[in-house]
Structures are given as C-alpha cells and as structure tokens.
C-alpha cells in the first residue's frame, strides 16, 4: 500500500456463507474478538440475499448492485437458449458492469470474489474466486501468476476431499486459507489500490460439510470449525488496525447457512405429481425432458415452465401458463416433511411440517431486462431444507454428506463508514452494498 | 495370451522437468491405456493450472503436487504391449522426496533414466543414477528427451550420450540403450521418429519389451531367510520366502548362523502339503526331519554353498534422515529378516550424492542425502553376500528410533 | 511367475512379516471382495489357521446376506471373529436416517474402530486397501503409522520402505495399518477370486439385471446395471473398461471442471 495517508480507502471483506447469527455469536463468545470490537463502532445487521440464495447469484448482486432480473445470473447452471443443454454462466454472462468496471479510475484489488471468472482487464488486480477452471484466465494481470504460484495460492479448496476424508479436507482448507492470507498481504503491501476486495470461502465449505460442528462442543471438528473463524478474525483485526478513520470497511456474507434437515428432490416431486416426464434415451441431464412435461427444476429450487416455443419439447401453451403456475404453487405449498424422518436434534415422531415458505413468481422478486430468462417460480424453502434438482432421484427426501444448507434471509452486513459519513441500514439486501460504496466515494 | 499375465515393474527417474510424467502420459496414450474419463480429468486439471503438457498430470494425484509441478510420491500406473503388462512406478524428482523415490524405485526391476537433451546431466540425473546403482537396478534405458529443441541433431545426442556414459560408468551402471526421443510428440516412444532417420535403435516401447523379468536368483544355491516359526498342533512350520535357488523335500539344509544341518521333510503351502519343490520368489512353510531350534533371522542354505556370517563389512550407504549419522552411534542393521545392533565404525569417504564429489575422507558424520563408503560392525554376525552375488543378502537398511534412516549395499566382505 | 502369483507372494510376505512383528494384530473383514480376498491370503499364509482375530465392524445396517456369509465362513474356517459394534451410538439411535451419512459412518465405523483398538490393544491392523481405489491411495505405504486418537495420517512425511524392509515398530500412541494388497487392482481381485475360487457374497452377482460392485451398509449402497452373474462375466465386465457416467457426452474441459466442482459442493 502506498501510504498516501490523505486518500480514503475502502476495504470489503466477504465471508462466503457465514450467517448473521453465527458471526454474531462467535463475536460475542470471544472467538472473533476483532469482529466484536468492530461491531461496537459500526453498523451491523442481518442482510437478505437474492433468491435463489447461492453464491453465483448473490455475489453477482453484491458486485453489481442489481437484482438477478437485471444482472442475469440465476444460478450456477442454466440452459442454453432454445435448448435443454446445460450451461454454466460465468462472468462473461453478467449483463451489467461489476463495481470495478463501473469505476475504472479507482484502483482496486479484487481477491477471490466468486463467479468472476474469466477476468477482464481492470485498473488493478483481479484474482477470481471459484468456479475458475483455468488459472490463467482467473488472474489479471497475468504477471501476478508467478507470485501466486510462489505463494502456493489455490483458487479453491478441493471439496472432493470432504467426500473422502474430512481430515485431509480440513488440512487443505487451512492450507488454502493460509495461501489466501499470504496473497492478500502481498497485494495489500505491494500494489497501489483504493479499494480492496477480499473474500474467504472456507466459511461456506465448513458450513456445507461440518455445520453441526459449530454448535456442538463435543463434535470431533468443533475446534477446527472455530479455528477457521479465528483465523479470519485475525485478518479482520490486522486490516482494521491498518485503516484510518476516514477509510471505510464493509464485512459481509453472500448468504446464510443452517443445519440441513433433509434434501428435497424437487424434480422427483415434479415427476411424482405429473409435471415432469423423463425419457432416458436422448441424452443426459435436461435433454431427457419429454414433450409431456409441464415444468422442470434447476438447482436449487428454480422452476421453469416447459413452454412451447421456448424449449425443443415445450408443451405449455401461453394460455395454460397461469393455470400451471397456480397448480405448481399449490402443490409445493402442500409439500410436507414426513414425521418418520426425524430431524437431527428434533423431537421424534413430531408432526409433519410444511417445507416451502413461499413460491415466488418471478415478477415478485425480479425486475429488469433479463426477466424473460428468469425461472418462472422460485421456491423459498423453510430454513433447514435443502432443495436439490437432480434428475435421477428415487425419493422425495434424502440425505447426503452435506450437513449445512443455505439460507437467504440471514446473511450479514457490517459497515464502518469513513468518518463524517452516516449510514443507516434498514433491512439491507445484498444488492445495496454497491450503493453504500458509492456513498463512501462521494 | 500367456504373456498378458506377465508383468514388469519399472521406474522412470530423472531431473525435475526433464519429462518423466510426460513420458508416462505418452506411453499410456500410445498404448491406448487411458479410459476416456481419465483423459477428461487430465484436460480439466491441466487446464486449471494452464499447463500445455497434459500428460504430465496423469501421475500427479494430489492438488499440492499439481500446483508445485512436481510429483511428491510414488504412484503406479499400468499399460500393456503385445509382449507383457507394465507397471510404471513414478518417482518424484525433487530432492525433498528422495525417501519416496527410493520407496517406489526399490520395487522396480528396470529403470528409464530420462535426460533433457538441452540441459544434459543435472543434479537429480546424478543422484537418481546413483540411487539406481544403490538399489541394484541393472536394466537401465536412457531416454534423451526433447530432441525437437535441438533440431533433432545427431551430434547433440551423441554429446549428451557421451557425457552420460562417462558418468554412469563411474557408478558401474551400464545402460542397455540410449534413445533419442520427444516424449510430448511421441517421437521414438512407440513409433520410430521420422525426424531422426539417423537413429536405427529401438523405440522406448521396443526397448522395454526387450527387457527381462529377472528371475536369475532361481539359478543360484538355496537361500531362505526365516521369517517366523509357526506351529499348528505339533506341526512346526518354518515360514519364509525362497530368495535364491530351490528347496525340495529330502534336501539337506544348513541353518545359519548355528551351522546345524537337517533334512527337509515337507515343502508346503496352504492345501498343498506335499509340494515337490519351491523356487525363488515363493512363500512357503517347510518342516524338517530333526526338531532343530530355528528362529526368525536364521538363514537356511545349501551346505557347501552357503554365504558367510560376518560381523564386519564394507558398504555404500545413503543417509535418508534429517539428523546426521554419527560415527560409532548405535543403530539397528537389518538385512532380509536378520537384525543386529551395529555401528558405522568408519566413514572412509563422504560424497555429495548429486555431484558424487568427495566431500571428505575419514569423516565423522554423514548428513542428510549424503552417500558414504563405510565400514559397519555388527554385534551378532549377519549372513551376507555382496550385492552382485545375491541381491537379498547384499542390501540392508539402518534403523534408528524405529524408522528406516539409511539404505546400503554391501561392496566388500 | 505370473502377475497374480507375484501379487499373492507379495501379500503373503507382508502378512507374515506383520504378524511376526506384531502379535497384537487383527484383520479388518468387511465381508466384501477386497477384505474377503485378504482373508483368503491370510488363510494361505497360515495354512488355514489364522493366528489373530478377524474383526468385523458391524454397523447393524449391513445386508442380511453379509451377516449370513460372515457367520457361515467364520465357523467353517475356524476364525477368531470379533464383531465390534458401537453400542453407545446404536443405542442412541444413530443410523443413516438420523444425522448425515458421514456422521453415521463416523460413529458406526470410525469411532467403533477406535474403541475396538483401545479395547483389544491392537498394535497393527490389516486392511485391504488398494492403490487404484483413489488418487490419494497412491500415497500409501505397505506399513503405515496412524495416530490412535485422530487416525491422523501424515502422508507428506512417511517413513521410506526400501526393498522388503518396512516400518515395523509403532509408537505407543500409534498403530500401524498393514496394507498387503496395495499393489492389487480391482480386476486383479476378481481374477484372483476366480482363480482361487474364493467364496463371495451373492450380492456381487447379478440378479434381475443388477449387481453390487461394492457392498457395505444396505441403505447406502446402490446396485449397478449388470448382467454379470458369474465370475467370468464379472471379469469380462471389468475388462470392458467401463467409462464412468460423467463421461457420457462430449463436453469442453471447462464444463467438465465446473461440473465436478459443483458436484463436489452439492450444487449438481
């Protein structure tokens, strides 16, 4: 960092998938003392993520200040136009400029923001976060690559390890985190910047695979879980200490996390209720959709009408759309979690409960030019249920190794504005963050 | 199809980035040994690091090695030719991983030493050559890689070949072939190169097919180190693997170090209580006519042709531990199933294992990854041979705090 | 010597070597094809009378065929069978429907094993793992020390194994994992089972177009489509080198990478 002490700086720290309640709790309990100290001198609030609450969508909102109907990223996956071919939207598919593209005069370091691959030239340094298939297209300028290699920098934790061996997974997670911290320190010192973005992803990975370790002190990996947040807190403290009163600091997550009670296989539900028919012969994934199908789902709970004219085997006529939407909505709202399936820590033989909080129509939650490409319905599940859209499931509810699942309503946002700037946060949303930085700049 | 049941384990060694993993990938590719999804995985992984050479990733299983661009440990991979099946043991080139390289290479029956023609003999080329000699690997193919970088010129190849031959001669390693090749493009890997018409020798694959699955120990006199004695009821089995020669019922045997003799009653395996004989490589149980006291660490031999029990011997030693070997410190010497307390009583010469430069004569210690010409003294005499006579009794390890800290071969008795 | 005979000899040597060094040793027998083959090799190493216990980590969720097979052959082969159950967890209702599969495995297998090691004081365990199971297995040694409490495996700094010399001592807080079958591949296992005519659980053989390629707890195993109902057919099926399901359609490399990443995170 060039010590131009007069110039205000802004630092944005992301903790992927860290819920408000957890961060608040760890701060109160002294696991994250630096965060606790900041809480007292900053504004700290629960934040709403866009639906569906997955990193690809939420981070796209965070960096553009737009809702998905405008930025055009509705999930990690999508279908190519006029087809059932699965595609993976990336930074090129983002329909509005990111914050660093919007302010090309401000020097920025963007380290590990998810869903920003492949990188584009910018006034600064950009190292994309997951998913980044090719590191050379994940780094700008490319001459930073040598340094990253020297630091043993890795874009992401190898989550496959968690499926095999939790110890190795944790080892990898901490290694990746150490290298990430080394990279942040290097660019912090050695490059000239006004705004610094730094995202930690281990928080999300721990949530996915080891969420129960957080609350249970007897859990084998409880200490490891807390250690990660301690490490992050140390970096937060290190950063806070280096900032002047006229600098701004934002710390936030992109979505929340809670313990996963059960997976809900949405496409199985659609099949069982006659909305979806698959024919295995033509190909994989969504190419199996047969002309009898009225609707199908993409991960996690995005429901698309199989519209005539929009898809090769489209069946739903314009005139039927409203009726089918209503039927779908009704069916999902009836969906109950059976009592035989006792949630962890829940009371046994409890009553069955509804699992879908609401079925949102796209017009209710999205606005903007990309709304035609949006899912027709988005399921907003009750916390603790994990929506899945696998096509070859044999049961409505199941479980797997993912012990945590995302939540939309309890991301968090902490804002320490530059001295003299007032910020009030009334139920903030992920897409409000850009507006806050805008204010700091002015 | 008989041959398809035969296999040969070999190791590929050489300096880092001289093309080991690429050669392996190419061998697998050219022998059609890659399943489609493996191919997909390689593309994906190499793409993540933006490397052009995709074959190299085949052997690199952990993320960290991929990232560092080096192979840390020993993996094994298979391919087939019409001749036989091959098991490739990949050996890491990096100096820190010598332990792992040795672990892999000590299982090999043959080796390919790969050398980048543009770089010539480098540090690990030398160390690995030394280790091949130490491990007693006699069948060596030298692959001179990246010929495309020097315009496929014969004189450059000859110059490197000359350089290597001189170096290897000093280690008593005599390669069977020197092959000019381009691993990445496949020149002289499976197909004769169109770019080097001046070369008429074998390709890497034909050279491999020309190697032998060594069973020479079968033609020697019997050596059977005793692993354990195992009793079922009143039957007393002497368990062990025949390391040389053959053992038959009715044969007179001598048990070292006691020197007692007896006659073999039965040679047995599970559900085969009356084997006519067992040859080198077979694990058996044998019973004897006389109830001799036999225990682990004894060596059963053919009287008149037995090796000698020695309490002092000269050896070439390779030190693998971070803490140095101190002359006269007490260690455990282990050879086959024999064990004795022992000491290195003399370090005649201390070598840099990379350059083979003599660092010191009459040294008092041997440091990590240094080699030494030493004299070892053991409390209990061990039955030993020179490595050149019989591999199993000619090589040994030193053990300190329950860990293997050195490997050695016996040069003089 | 052909490949299978070489493998057999390598394994028997290691089995005997480990027993010679650690009399407090046990074989982990899952009743599956790999540990079933290892059990057979142990029988061969000791002329049909295995001098150490054979331990089955019983989650109580195994297929009925597995229990039948276990009890039948334990008797027939005179095995010193230990059935280890984590009664505490089972009593507390742990199962695949309660908690996650990982938790279930951790408690009913891993913790169960830890308890058994402590209870019986085993210094070494025979395991039937193979290098070809997974990339990380390529790092395994024949004799591999593991810490008793966490089962930590320091795979980056393992003792060397030279020739046939192994690490044959464990520290007090460690036990050694003995892996006599490290060099075997899945196809070798089946060819050897065929050659030796080793009895195997019927679940491996196709019935109504399905068979199990690996077996364990009933709730967590899925059969594959197969008509292989004999050893010959299973060997033929494996030799046909099946491509895994993800290799179906031509995808560009980025997509493949992305797909795998998303799968590992549960997004696909």
Tell me what the structure shows.
Chain A is 32% helix and 19% strand. With 442 residues, chain A is of the alpha/beta class. In chain A, the strands form six sheets. Chain A has an eight-stranded mixed sheet with strand order 2-21-9-1-8-5-6-7. In chain A, α1 packs across α2 (33-41), α2 packs across α10 and α9 packs across α10. Residues 1-5 and 341-346 of chain A have low confidence and may be disordered. Chain B has eight helices and 23 strands. Chain B has helices at 20-30, 36-49, 63-68, 98-105, 123-135, 154-170, 204-209, 391-394; strands spanning 7-14, 76-80, 85-90, 110-116, 139-145, 177-180, 223-232, 235-241, 246-247, 252-256, 260-268, 278-279, 283-288, 299-301, 308-319, 325-326, 330-335, 338-352, 358-363, 365-366, 370-384, 395-400, 403-412. A six-stranded mixed sheet of chain B has the order 2-3-1-4-5-6, sandwiched between helices. Chain B has a six-stranded antiparallel beta barrel with strand order 7-8-13-11-10-14. Chain C is built from eight helices and eight strands; from the N terminus they run αβαβαβααβββαββαα. Chain C has helices at 3-21, 33-45, 64-76, 87-91, 101-120, 186-196, 231-239, 253-264; strands spanning 25-28, 54-57, 81-84, 124-126, 143-147, 174-178, 210-211, 224-225. In chain C, the strands form two sheets. A six-stranded mixed sheet of chain C has the order 3-2-1-4-6-5. A two-stranded antiparallel ribbon of chain C has the order 7-8. In chain C, β2, α3 and β3 (81-84) form a beta-alpha-beta unit. Mean pLDDT of chain C is 82; it is low at 242-252. The chains are: A alpha/beta (442), B alpha+beta (413), C alpha/beta (268).
């Amino acid at each position: 960092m060039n010590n131009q002490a007069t110039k205000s700086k802004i630092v944005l720290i992301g903790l992927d998938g860290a819920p408000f309640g957890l961060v608040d709790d760890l701060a109160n309990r002294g696991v994250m003392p630096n965060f606790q100290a900041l809480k007292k001198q900053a504004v700290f609030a629960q934040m709403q993520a866009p639906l569906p609450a997955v990193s690809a969508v939420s981070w796209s909102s965070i960096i553009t200040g737009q809702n998905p109907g405008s930025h055009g990223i509705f999930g990690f996956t999508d279908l190519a136009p006029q087809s059932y071919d699965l595609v993976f939207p990336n930074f090129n598919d983002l329909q509005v400029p990111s914050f660093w593209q919007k302010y090309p005069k401000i020097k920025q370091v963007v380290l590990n923001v998810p869903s920003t691959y492949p990188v584009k030239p910018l006034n600064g340094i950009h190292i994309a976060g997951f998913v980044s298939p090719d590191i050379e297209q994940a780094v700008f300028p490319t001459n930073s690559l040598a340094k990253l290699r020297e630091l043993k920098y890795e874009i992401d934790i190898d989550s496959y390890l968690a499926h095999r061996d939790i110890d190795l997974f944790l080892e990898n997670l901490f290694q990746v985190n150490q290298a990430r911290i080394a990279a942040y320190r290097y660019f912090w010192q050695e490059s000239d910047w006004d705004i610094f973005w730094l995202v930690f992803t281990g928080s999300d990975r721990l949530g996915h695979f080891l969420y129960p370790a957080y609350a249970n002190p007897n859990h084998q990996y409880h200490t490891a879980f807390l250690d990660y947040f301690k490490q992050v807190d140390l970096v937060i403290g290190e950063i806070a200490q280096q900032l002047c009163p006229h600098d701004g600091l934002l710390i936030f997550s992109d979505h929340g996390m809670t313990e996963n009670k059960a997976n809900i296989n949405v496409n199985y539900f659609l099949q069982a209720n006659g909305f979806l028919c698959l024919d295995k012969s033509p190909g994989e994934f969504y190419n199996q959709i047969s002309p009898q199908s009225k609707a199908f789902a993409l991960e996690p709970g995005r429901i698309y009408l199989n519209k005539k004219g929009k898809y090769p085997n489209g069946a739903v006529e314009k005139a039927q759309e409203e009726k089918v939407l209503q039927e779908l909505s009704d069916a999902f709202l009836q969906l109950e979690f059976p009592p035989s399936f006792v949630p962890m820590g829940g009371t046994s033989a409890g009553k069955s409960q509804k699992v879908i909080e609401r079925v949102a129509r796209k017009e209710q939650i999205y606005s903007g030019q990309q709304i035609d490409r949006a899912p027709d319905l988005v399921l907003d599940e009750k916390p603790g249920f994990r929506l899945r859209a696998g096509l070859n499931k044999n049961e409505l509810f199941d479980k797997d190794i993912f012990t945590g699942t995302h939540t939309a309503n309890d991301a968090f946002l902490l804002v320490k504005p530059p001295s003299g700037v007032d910020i009030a946060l009334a139920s903030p949303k992920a897409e409000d963050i850009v507006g806050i930085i805008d204010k700091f700049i002015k | 199809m008989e041959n398809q049941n035969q296999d040969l384990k070999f190791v590929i060694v050489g300096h880092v980035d001289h093309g080991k993993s690429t050669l392996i990938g190419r061998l697998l590719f050219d022998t059609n040994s890659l399943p489609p999804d493996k191919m997909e995985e390689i593309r994906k992984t190499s793409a993540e690091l933006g490397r052009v050479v995709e074959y190299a990733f085949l052997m690199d299983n952990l993320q960290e090695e991929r990232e560092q661009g080096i192979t840390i440990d020993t993996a094994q991979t298979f391919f087939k030719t019409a001749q036989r099946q091959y098991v490739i043991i990949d050996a890491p080139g990096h100096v820190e991983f010598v332990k792992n390289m040795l672990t892999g290479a000590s299982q090999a029956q043959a080796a390919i030493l790969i050398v980048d023609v543009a770089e010539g003999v480098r540090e690990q080329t030398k160390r690995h050559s030394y280790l091949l000699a130490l491990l007693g690997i006699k069948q060596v193919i030298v692959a001179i890689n990246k010929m495309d970088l020097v315009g496929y010129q014969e004189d450059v190849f000859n110059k490197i070949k000359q350089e290597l031959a001189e170096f290897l001669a000093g280690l008593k390693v005599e390669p069977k072939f020197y092959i000019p090749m381009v691993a990445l493009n496949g020149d002289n890997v499976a197909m004769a190169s169109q770019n080097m018409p001046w070369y008429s020798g074998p390709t890497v694959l034909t050279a491999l097919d020309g190697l032998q699955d060594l069973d020479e120990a079968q033609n020697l006199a019997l050596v059977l180190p005793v692993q354990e004695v195992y009793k079922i009821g009143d039957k007393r089995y002497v368990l062990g693997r025949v390391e040389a020669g053959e053992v038959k019922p009715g044969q007179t045997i001598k048990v070292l170090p006691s020197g007692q003799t007896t006659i073999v009653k039965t040679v047995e395996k599970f559900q085969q209580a009356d084997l006519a004989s067992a040859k080198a490589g077979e694990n058996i149980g044998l019973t004897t006519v006389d109830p001799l006291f036999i225990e682990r660490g004894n060596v059963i031999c053919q009287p008149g042709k037995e090796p000698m029990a020695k309490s002092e011997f000269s050896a070439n030693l390779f030190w693998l531990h971070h803490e140095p070997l101190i002359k006269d410190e007490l260690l455990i010497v282990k050879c086959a199933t024999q064990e004795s307390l022992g000491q290195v009583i003399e370090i005649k010469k201390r070598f840099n294992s990379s350059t083979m430069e003599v660092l010191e004569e009459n040294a008092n210690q041997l440091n990590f990854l240094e080699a030494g010409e030493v004299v070892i003294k053991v409390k209990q005499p061990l039955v030993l041979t020179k490595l050149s006579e019989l591999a199993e009794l000619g090589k040994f390890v030193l053990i300190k705090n329950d860990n293997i800290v050195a490997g050695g071969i016996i040069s003089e008795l | 010597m052909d490949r299978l005979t070489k493998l057999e000899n390598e394994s028997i040597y290691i089995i005997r070597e480990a027993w010679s060094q650690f009399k407090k040793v046990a074989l982990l027998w899952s009743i599956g094809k790999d540990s079933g083959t290892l059990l057979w090799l142990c029988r061969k190493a000791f002329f049909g009378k295995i001098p150490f216990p054979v331990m089955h980590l019983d989650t109580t969720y195994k297929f009925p065929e597995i229990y039948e097979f276990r009890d039948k052959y334990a008797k027939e082969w005179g095995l010193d069978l230990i059935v280890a159950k984590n009664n505490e967890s089972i009593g507390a209702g742990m199962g695949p429907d309660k908690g996650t599969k990982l938790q279930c495995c951790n408690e009913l297998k891993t913790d169960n094993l830890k308890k058994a090691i402590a209870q019986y004081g085993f210094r070494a365990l025979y395991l039937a793992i193979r290098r070809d199971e997974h990339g990380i297995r390529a790092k395994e040694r024949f004799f591999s020390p593991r810490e008793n409490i966490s089962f930590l495996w320091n795979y980056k700094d393992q003792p060397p194994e030279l020739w046939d010399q192994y690490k044959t001592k464990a520290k007090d807080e460690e036990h050694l994992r003995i892996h006599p079958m490290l060099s075997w591949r899945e196809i070798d296992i089946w060819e050897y089972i065929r050659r030796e005519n080793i009895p195997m659980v019927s679940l491996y053989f196709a019935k109504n177009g399905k068979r199990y390629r690996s077996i364990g707890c009933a709730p967590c195993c899925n059969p594959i489509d197969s008509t292989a109902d004999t050893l010959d057919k299973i060997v033929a099926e494996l030799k046909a080198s099946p491509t895994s399901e993800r290799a179906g359609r031509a995808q560009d490399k980025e997509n493949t990478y992305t797909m795998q990443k998303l799968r590992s995170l549960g997004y696909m």
